[in-house]
Amino acid sequence: MSKYRLFLLRHGEGAWNKENRFCSWVDQKLSEDGVKEAQDCGRLLKEQGYKFDLVFTSILSRSVQTAWLVLEAMGQEWVPVVKSWRLNERHYGALIGLNRAEMALQHGEEQVKLWRRSYDITPPPIDESHPYFLEIYNDRRYATCDVPKDSLPRAESLKEVLDRLLPYWDSIVVPEIRKGRTVLISAHGNSCRALLKHLEGISEKDIANVTLPTGIPVLLELDENLRPVKPRQLLGDQAKIQAAIKKVEDQGKAKPSN
């Protein structure tokens, strides 16, 4: 029997989602479509009568902005929002800023799928020669983390995302859920996928085929041991959700040259 409810949300479309580039730890705001996705998500949750007690986000603007817009649309702006780098998107290392479709043409779709979707393959690390290195590591937000800046990732596999996320989940998020609070985690495609893998016991092979579209809330109903009692529910118009999933899956495919 369901004892707790947890909502996961991949932030609305960002500017670089639109350009099909690896955004990762570069701080991008939502695109116009992303703003609308977040507002639509909030309206849907309000219509369905959901109320949040606490929201967790990463420290990237697109995750925080999504949470704000959802709460505003629900008329729940007062709900506390707690931020942590441990919910950040996966660090794509040297791939940050590159276009997925162009990479598929250069390296092949299988290699890009491995980089994007495999569980334990880490992309090449970012170094100081990378055009976005200083923009990321000189950002004041990374001086606020619970580890020294030098210990922050330079690239991550999905496994490494789960490794840095789990201590936060166990020590900060779980106690709030156990108090009976309804929690929304407004994060990123890979931090949400990593958490789903942990909660649902998804295999390392099968996690590659789990796709979360932007701006679609995922409802998990959990038992007293925080294990799902039924399959995850993606809330909203199911035909639109399937189209959005296909759009995400197509991002790593080579575009035919005209």
Task: Reconstruct the topology from this structure.
Elements: E1 4-10, H1 15-18, H2 32-47, E2 54-57, H3 61-74, E3 81-83, H4 100-107, H5 109-117, H6 133-137, H7 158-178, E4 183-187, H8 189-200, E5 217-222, E6 233-234, H9 238-249
Parallel strand pairs: 1-4, 2-3, 2-4
Antiparallel strand pairs: 1-5, 5-6
Helix pairs in contact: 2-3, 4-5, 7-8
Structural notes for this entry:
This protein has 258 residues and is α/β, with parallel strands linked by helices. The protein has a single domain (4-251), classed as Phosphoglycerate mutase-like (Rossmann fold), CATH 3.40.50. It has helices at residues 15-18, 32-47, 61-74, 100-107, 109-117, 133-137, 158-178, 189-200, 238-249, and strands at 4-10, 54-57, 81-83, 183-187, 217-222, 233-234. It has a 6-stranded mixed β-sheet. α3 links the parallel β2 and β3. α4 crosses α5. The mean pLDDT is 93.
